[in-house]
Amino acid sequence: MAKAGLEQLQQAERIAAFAPELYIPPPSAWLALTEAHRAVAEIITLNLSRRRLVRLAPSGDGHPVMVLPGFMGGDGYNAALRRFLSGLDYSVHGWGQGRNLGPREGVLEGLRERITYLSERYESPVSLVGHSLGGIFARELAREYPERVRQVISLGSPFGEGRMTGSIPARLFSALNPPEELPIDQDVLHHAPPVPTTAIYSKGDGIVNWKTTLQADGHAKSQSIQVRGSHCGMTLNPSIWFLIAERLAVPHGAWQPFERRNWRNLFFPSSQP
Questions:
Q1: Which residue range is the domain that position 34 belongs to?
Q2: Would residue 120 count as lying in a domain?
Q3: Is 179 helix (H, G, I), strand (E, B) or coil?
Q4: For 152-194, what is each residue's pLDDT tens digit?
Q5: CB 133 within 8 A of CB 107
Q6: Residue 247 has pLDDT above 70, yes or no
Q7: How far apart, in Å, are the Cα atoms of 258 and each of 130, 132, 171, 177, 199?
């Protein structure tokens, strides 16, 4: 494990030295050190705005939704978000794979079985909402099973080029998941899956460089939307909750991009196709 982490660090140093145009640094020390404080602020804001948020968010149509946690997280981390979406009339499920330590043995197989089970149980494609590494899993499931996935919403997921150097926990991830053993094709990660895809990102992300979380070369039904907030607080950020609800409510087969207008401009500073 230590050897894999050292090799990744050496490779990152080579990129910085010989191909600086490809090097994306991790977030600044200030952003990283204030992550916890800003996440707490998001939780407080959520508690103060929860009732109004429920009134503003559009109701769902009952279709299944699976929420996937970020690196080192589990289903408990997303429990509040899942309850909120359930209250909007979605059939919401966790990922059911325990703590997310990466694409270790059995994880991808378990997710394939789960997406098949949910889509057949509800006789409907499943919307996937993934935080950080969970968003990468969601995108890859959609790439493999586009007929079973209705849409993908990623929250601060570092799928873009430069992710190897632009993420603070990248060394730990590589130690747990040696690059040469990864079962996911790294060359296609930055390409959008062939379903409606929304990449939510924050320039205040203190864990991964926001430039690696943008869908830079997407298709006609992909969009990147900027929010204000931290990385760790993304599943407890009220503006993200509203955005997820708004995207999930888009009718199946009638995708339209998210529109920034009126008060939305304050909470969502930027969006791009």
A1: 2-251+268-272
A2: yes
A3: helix
A4: 999 999 999 887 788 888 777 776 666 655 656 677 888 999 9
A5: no
A6: yes
A7: 18, 21, 35, 35, 11
> Is the model more confident about 42 or about 18?
42
Question: pTM, whole model, 2 decimals?
Answer: 0.89
Looking at the domain assignment, is residue 261 inside a domain? no
Assigned domain for 56 exists: yes
Q: How many domains does the chain have?
A: 1
Nearest to 273 by CA among 210, 199, 206, 213: 199
CATH of the domain at 133: 3.40.50.1820
Task: Give the H/E segment covering residue 170.
Answer: helix 170-176
φ, ψ of residue 229 to 5 degrees: the values are 155, -175
Question: Is 194 among the domain residues?
Answer: yes
- CB-based contacts of 101, cutoff 8 Å, min separation 6: 71, 72, 176, 177
49 touches 238 (CB < 8 A): yes
Name which of 123-132, 177-186, 238-247 the model is least confident about.
Answer: 177-186
